[in-house]
Amino acid sequence: MAGVRDPPSELQIRVHSRRGGNIIHPVEVETPQLSSSAPTPVVYREVKHFKNWFPWLIPAFVVANVIMLVITMYVNDCPKNSVSCLARFLGRFSFQPFKENPLLGPSSTTLEKMGALDVSKVVDKHQGWRLITCIWLHGGVFHLLANMLSLLVIGIRLEQEFGFVRIGLLYVISGLGGSLFSALFIQSNISVGASGALFGLLGGMLSELITNWTIYANKAAALLTLVVIIVINLAVGILPHVDNFAHIGGFLSGFLLGFVFLIRPQFGWVSQRYASPGYSSVSANPKFKAYQCILWITSLILLITGFTVGLVLVLRGVDLNDHCSWCHYLTCVPTSRWSCNTGPVSCMSEQISDQLTLTCSSSGKSRTYILLNATTSQIQGLCAQLCN
């Protein structure tokens, strides 16, 4: 018909039509049949493999972590279980003394009760669930703020690009990897925090940058963001209750998982995949490049092997500090203001009238307190302060 244009024989893929963050998104272009007298509009439809997801899982993780800290502080009840507390006006939500916990948080006893990673309980009492529950606990307000702000910055962008399923799996599996690595080094102290899972997202972001290198518009900005967040969290990691071994284990797990979960197809394959039925290409483009496939296979093998070996070593109670005498400084540097001994402690107690005398079982330090009819919780709190 003379008044109608023929439809185009080829479906085009615009590469620079829409941008999200530092990644370039291809968009499918359609040209509908219209009268020749009217201008031809271009209709854009999002390509399935580069869909922009609505982020809800990462914010839900943040809310869950905040709720868990509130519940932990409620259970801690410092005024009832300790002689001295910080911010006592908060009532049972007040914090343990700074010397005991510089992160403004609960006692080690409470964290252990709530599900902190305690290797002895994992090995001897078969409480393997602690490898997962410790991911949702934090040592205090400072610890929580550092992790959650970083999680929002990194996690939301990744969930927008790759969806909640892949990022959720990346988060949880990396957290487990961090717990396993931590359990191989931290034998006497407890460990808590989402740092392993967070560093898994950072590791996944790095491997995504490598495997999808050609689709990044600003590689320098992406690398700078990674470096800044890693440095901040490693600096926090030298404080008690924060576990740099979990950081390392989570980062390595996430780095390998990124090559498995966060791989993207080539633009050439996407162009062919969404081309019109009548369009034929001289040479078919593969969905993934050769190096992407090699990294995918290698990473999957390393992940399966690493998790299997790590789990076996943890359940056998292996302590890798026997092979590395200085590695413990990677997770905590002791100072005059705090101790790196964050594990449960015990004391010998003697009550004479209104005088309570405690002797730390580990260090032998002794001190007398003016306290009448001290409760078990109060004795435990004073013992923690004395031994630390």
From TrEMBL:
Gene Ontology terms: biological process: proteolysis
Gene Ontology cellular-component terms listed: Golgi apparatus; membrane
Enzyme class: hydrolase
One Gene Ontology term of the molecular function aspect: serine-type peptidase activity
EC number of this enzyme: 3.4.21.105
Catalytic activity: Cleaves type-1 transmembrane domains using a catalytic dyad composed of serine and histidine that are contributed by different transmembrane domains
Pfam family, one: Rhomboid
Cellular localisation: Membrane
Highest taxon above the source species: Eukaryota
Topological relation to the membrane, as annotated: Multi-pass membrane protein
SUPFAM superfamilies documented for this protein: Rhomboid-like
Record InterPro entries: Peptidase_S54_rhomboid-like, Peptidase_S54_rhomboid_dom, Rhomboid-like_sf
Job of this protein: Serine protease involved in intramembrane proteolysis.
Family affiliation: Belongs to the peptidase S54 family.
PANTHER family referenced in this protein's UniProt entry, alphabetically: RHOMBOID-LIKE PROTEIN 4, RHOMBOID-RELATED
The protein, known as: RHOMBOID-like protein
